[in-house]
């Protein structure tokens, strides 16, 4: 597929462009799961047809330079070339900032989604599995992180760590709920005892 470049100044990549691009790639992958007959080249075209600005300029040049091999290229190979290009753009600095700033504010599931969204365009050459896991753990809420790192067997892959974190969050929430129930029962018993004492005291005075 060849796209004609518009005669305008290229739109510079912004952080939301990367997040939108990641969502689009996810949807293309989902379509492929539902349609195994979709070729790599068609998947590449489905992504590229949404490019504009700097991404469009890059794809046109990439297409011209790799026309003979593009139809044989796997989708993952294309994504690696795309990530290499994006890694040279100023927007990557904001992505790095977001990576080092991201923390769990809501649920673990929400944190996982945000973390995945940020690291999608990070090069695994520089951001190893170990470093990603370390950064992920540092962003977890303290109670979940402590529950996870105190496990006897530690998962070695980021995806596994994320799944275990969700499980530990559920366990912690259940423990907090049970503690609340116990504390509530104790408080009610305390109130009941005080009420009985007051009744005894009132009867004695009469």
Descriptive account of the structure:
There is one protein chain. This protein is mostly helical and 206 residues long. The chain has two domains: 15-92, no CATH class; 102-191. 72% of the residues lie in helices and 0% in strands. It is built from ten helices and no strands. Helix 9 crosses helix 10.
Question: Can you lay out the helices and strands and say which pair or pack?
Answer:
Elements: H1 15-34, H2 40-48, H3 53-65, H4 67-70, H5 75-86, H6 91-101, H7 108-119, H8 129-139, H9 142-149, H10 158-205
Helix pairs in contact: 9-10
Protein name: Ty3 transposon capsid-like protein domain-containing protein
Domain Ty3 transposon capsid-like protein: 16-176
Pfam families: Ty3_capsid
Low-confidence stretches: 1-8
- Rg estimate, integer Å: 27 Å
Task: Please state the structural category.
Answer: mainly alpha
How many beta-strand segments? Answer: 0
Q: How would you spell out the order of helices and strands?
A: HHHHHHHHHH
State the distance separating the first and last CA atoms.
Answer: 98 Å
Q: Round the mean pLDDT to the nearest integer and report it.
A: 83
The total domain count is 2
Contiguous helical run count: 10
Helical residues, percent: over 70%
Largest sheet: none
Approximate shape: elongated
Beta-strand share of residues: under 5%
InterPro entries: Ty3_capsid (IPR045358)
Domain Ty3 transposon capsid-like protein: 16-176
Protein name: Ty3 transposon capsid-like protein domain-containing protein
């Amino acid at each position: 597929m060849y796209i004609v470049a518009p005669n305008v100044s290229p739109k510079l990549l912004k952080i939301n462009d990367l997040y939108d691009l990641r969502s689009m790639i996810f949807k293309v992958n989902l379509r492929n799961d539902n349609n195994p007959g979709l070729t790599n080249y068609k998947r590449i075209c489905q992504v590229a047809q949404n490019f504009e600005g700097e991404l469009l300029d890059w794809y046109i040049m990439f297409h011209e330079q790799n026309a003979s091999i593009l139809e044989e290229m796997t989708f993952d190979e294309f994504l690696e070339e795309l990530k290499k290009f994006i890694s040279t753009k100023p927007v990557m600095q904001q992505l790095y900032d977001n990576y080092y700033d991201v923390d769990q504010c809501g649920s673990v599931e929400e944190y996982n989604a945000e973390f995945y969204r940020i690291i999608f365009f990070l090069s695994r050459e520089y951001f190893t599995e170990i470093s990603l896991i370390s950064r992920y753990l540092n962003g977890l809420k303290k109670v979940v992180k402590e529950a996870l790192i105190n496990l006897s067997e530690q998962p070695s892959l980021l995806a596994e760590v994320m799944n275990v974190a969700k499980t530990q969050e559920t366990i912690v929430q259940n423990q907090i709920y049970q503690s609340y129930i116990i504390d509530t029962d104790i408080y009610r018993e305390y109130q009941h005892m005080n009420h009985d004492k007051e009744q005894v005291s009132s009867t004695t005075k009469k």
